[in-house]
Amino acid sequence: MASSSNNHNNPFDESSHRTIDQQVDDYYDQYVDQAFGNLMLHYQQNLEARPSKKKRAYIERDREAGHTRLWNDYFSEAATYPANIFRRRFRMNKPLFMKIVDRFSNEIRFFRQKKDAIGRPGLSGLQKCTAAIRLLAYGTGADAVDEYLRLGESTARSCLEHFVEGIIHLFGDEYLRRPTPEDLQRLLYVGEDRGFPGMIGSIDCMHWEWKNCPTAWKGQFTRGAEKPTIVLEAVASYDLWIWHAFFGSPGKASQVHYSVNGRDYHLAYYLTDGFRRFGFANGNKDGFLGGLRKLFKEQWQADVLLKGGDSDEHAAISAHKLVLAGKSMVFKKMLESDEFKASSKLETVTLSEMKHEEVEALVDFMYSVDGSISCESLKKHCYVLAMATQTNKDQFLGGLAKVLEEQWQVDVRLKAVDSDDDSAISAHKVILASRSEVLKKMLESDEVKNSANQVETITLSELNTDELEALVEFIYSDGSTLSAKVKQHVRSLYFLADKYVILHLRDLCRSELISSLNPENALDFLELAQIPFDKVLHDAAFSFIKMNINTIASSEKFKVFVVSNPNLALEIMKASLTSKGNGYCSRCGSYKLYCRSCGH
User: For the whole model, what pTM was predicted?
Assistant: First the structure.
């Protein structure tokens, strides 16, 4: 009984526990329901107070029709608009645009033509790239291309953003870079080759109105009563490559060294509107024929002195016997006299009937490029020059070849690798040095200077006898054309002209190579243009190969070329594929990856 009584009086029995738990659960449920109700009421009030959002209307633009219209207008075989209108509206030629479209369609996911969930093709790469180009070219709003290309404003803006990013990503390393020292040297060479030594490009500027120019800056950006403008300066090379674009003041030109009309310059320059060429119109030909004048100014191994009847020994003018004898029969006979042959020192020739200024004009004429009397100092002494030289222009220009033929006072012998000393070719140091800086350095070497032999023999190991004869024949010519003998060895002489820095010979050989291009030699000429790189010959050979790819690609020579020049072969195949369809179906205009409708 005691035990039973104790259990009955315990306040914390099992039933009491269940009652407390039930009360807690009820209180918790009531609290959560009340809190959730308050939140829903607050959300409903905010939702009612918020303005209703208008749904964007869907417009069926028929994007397939937009692509078909674009293809038929510009890219089909019978396009509505010709190439000149394409160039004006797209700001570039069609092959360049298609190259960009191909790269974007293959390498950037955004520009690939995809299919939606029901298999319908999306916008083509042509439509997207055309939209970006039109926005850039015309500077219009993003919805201006909607009616023609059939894509919305936001899509057009997205195309423009991805296009700019794609250009930087795919072409930035090659085209959006600073010029390298190699680029600068190539531009200098091309400028000199075209008659502008020291020129590295063409410059032009345009003024853009600066609507929001700060008031404090208006003075320095305003011309007269006009509105403030800012200058856009751009520099482009001969191949339309833009090397420099800048807003504001121009920068400093590159440090180079070149000479024009006997005056040295140390800064490169740009061509601009209204510039005319004076005195160096023939480029490398002037350098070839003007080498004797350069040696005259340097007094390089001069071996005779000329003075007038009114001057003393100190005013005598140094010259070269060979030049005087080659350009004038009078001087040749004078220098062949026993008096001069017996003398071992630097002999002085006194022209007693001439004044000092007339002797200066005579020597200047003797070392002229083409025997013309152009400057005023020569025109004043025309009669004296005619009496002193007694020669016509053909004799004047061909005199050096004649003294070589006569072996007149030769002082050096040239030997080929396959010949002996008996078959060496006699020549004159001053002529070799005037035509080639490399040969000049060789003749100035200690080995040649300290030689005990009166006539030193120089071996040109990369030439055979026939090639050496052709080279010497050209060196003594007037440089106007290539003889039949030179044309027989044009490939070897093209390579040697670069090695011995005879630039005019290289130019003539290049022209001969280009004019003789055919399916049999095009691959050889393309390979020849690589080392050292010759862009003119490379482009000519590459274009010829691309135009005749069916014939050339099926030859055995092309298989050998692919093994020895895989990178060039890859460029050729890419170019040929690009020119034959650019990745789009030629029948219906669809991108070939999704061209299923016409079965082409």
Answer: 0.46
